[in-house]
UniProtKB/TrEMBL annotation:
This is VOC family protein. Transmembrane segments: none annotated. Coiled coil: none annotated. It comes from Streptomyces tricolor. Residues 14-109, 129-232 form the Glyoxalase-like domain. PANTHER family: CONSERVED PROTEIN, HYPOTHETICAL FUSION PROTEIN. InterPro entries: Glyas_Bleomycin-R_OHBP_Dase, Glyoxalase_6.
């Protein structure tokens, strides 16, 4: 089983999907595909001269968040492997499946359609990471699940509460596993690698985002649809910390 590509999903309330679309196309330099799904709830962010790796979903329950789609040539095999590692099958749609990790995070196994070219850096940033926020009581087992399922290289982050799962070269997203400081439900959010956080922050604020909090090397933002995401101080070309290349762990992310 090989994961050939990934999609980072921003899940936002359906009533505010238009706001999310306007914002995320602007910050990623993309345009929208046609809307899909029974309620027109799915849409892809289409870059110029590259393959897509970001999508939006309008959800009807809750405030949304984020999730990752894992693309493969054999969805059945990937689904079976996920279940062997402890995932639960939520919905089987035939050629794709929705699953839930042991800590409760949703993700999808979907067909690979030949995507190979990562979207470029846009205005000093790149959407390149899905951060999984995991309660301390589930952190070890959840980290083992994702490492076992993906087979990606496991690296220490820049702080003890972070672990990085780095995919093979060419895949568009890596996973950051963040150990929370309290036992609350697991969640996920998107991270952008930024060459200059203040400059990217200013651009995002002009597009309607607001600062939620600030950390040592990251800024937590809230987009116009109400969803949280992070601007992280990492090289947007390599994903690594500035000056140390991709082999080291991620910069801190909220």
């Amino acid at each position: 089983m090989t994961i050939r590509w990934t999609y980072a999903f921003a899940d936002r309330p359906a009533a505010r999907l238009a706001d999310a679309c306007a914002f995320w196309t602007a910050v990623t330099g993309t345009r929208l595909s046609a809307f899909r799904g029974d309620r027109g709830e799915f849409v892809t962010l289409l870059p110029e001269g590259a393959d897509p790796s970001g999508k939006l979903q309008g959800v009807t329950d809750g405030a949304g968040g984020a999730h990752i789609d894992l693309c493969t040539e054999d969805v059945r095999e990937l689904t079976g492997r996920a279940r062997q590692h402890g995932a639960a099958l939520v919905a089987d749609h035939g050629d794709w499946a929705v699953l839930r990790s042991p800590a409760g995070l949703l993700f999808c196994a979907v067909p690979w359609h030949g995507e190979t070219v990562r979207p470029p850096v846009v205005s000093g940033s790149r959407l390149d990471q899905v951060c999984l926020d995991i309660p301390p009581s589930r952190y070890d087992s959840e980290s083992a699940f994702w490492a076992g399922l993906t087979g990606w290289e496991r690296l220490p982050g820049s702080r003890p509460e972070f672990t990085v799962l780095r995919p093979p070269a060419g895949l568009p997203h890596r996973l950051l596993l963040q150990r929370l400081d309290e036992d609350r439900p697991a969640s996920a959010h998107l991270d952008l690698a930024c060459a200059d956080i203040p400059a990217v922050r200013a651009r995002h604020e002009k597009l309607g985002a607001v600062v939620a909090s600030e950390g040592a090397h990251w800024t937590v933002m809230r987009d116009p649809a109400g969803g949280l995401y992070c601007l992280t101080g990492r090289d947007p070309e390599t994903g690594g910390l500035p000056g140390v290349g991709p082999a080291r762990g991620a910069a801190d992310a909220g």
